Amino acid sequence: MKARERWFSPRLQRDASLVRWGQMGPPVLIFPTAGGDAEEIERHQVVDTLGPLLREGKLKVYSCDSLAGRAILQGEGDARHRMRLLDRFQQYVYHEVVPAIRRDCRSDHIGIAVAGASIGAFNSLAVLCRYPDAVIRALCMSGTYDLTPFLEEAASEEFYLASPLHYLADLEGPLLDVLRTRFVLLASGEGDYEDIGQSWKVAEVLGRKGIPNRVESWGPDWPHEWHTWRQMLWTYRDGLMAGGA
Fold first, then answer.
1. Where in the sequence is the domain holding 129, given as residue range(s)?
2. Distance (Å, rounded) from C-alpha 206 to C-alpha 82?
């Protein structure tokens, strides 16, 4: 039921892991939180929560290491290095992780749903907005979407390309046309350490560009914690199971 791949990523210049749970069903890529690895979601019982769907062949779950998030959290190198790594992490997902998932699903064109919490929500939003030919929907939970405080607010082309809050306002053309056929769900609690204002800010940017999205508040009883995200994933499971051609 569980499989693991590991390879050296030429884009990231470091080893990277991809783990899969389940054998059948539409693929869902769940990004870890900030510095998490590919098996973080198993340690925090997310895989157990989705277990009935995995056993029934209704879902295949994948996760990769949060290599850029780890570098940002740990302050690796200078700000420009971290921004470059953020850009290359998204390229790694598209050019390395997506093909690996499609090979595993035996389909060259299958659409992939993405999900994640905190920095994982940022990664979910970012890869959908940048690569909507591969990613069909995103469940973004308790998201941190403005990363400038972690990057010393240094401007660079790499950061602009990697940050939806910054580039979407200028986006036009065929990529935007495809994005308008996708969907972003922005779910957030309003309990301890939550900031639903970040979700509303993203929704405003998406809405101005005509990209379908919805913000759902879970209220003050739901903090920035794993039990919140496990419940969100189960609550929104039908959207995750709606596979793409």
1. 2-241
2. 25
How far, in whole angstroms, is CA 180 from its chain's centroid?
Answer: 18
Tell me the CA end-to-end span of the chain in Å, nearest whole number: 23
CATH number at residue 102: 3.40.50.1820
Q: What are phi and psi of 228, to 5 degrees?
A: -65, -45
For the chain, the domain total comes to 1
Tell me which amino acid residue 105 is: C
Q: Supply the pTM of this predicted model.
A: 0.95
CA 10 remoteness from chain centre: 21
Question: Which structure tokens are listed for 86?
Answer: 């953020």
pLDDT value at residue 245: 42
What the block records as the tokens of 63 is 């996760």
Output the pLDDT for position 154: 55
| 134/95 Cα distance (integer angstroms) | 10
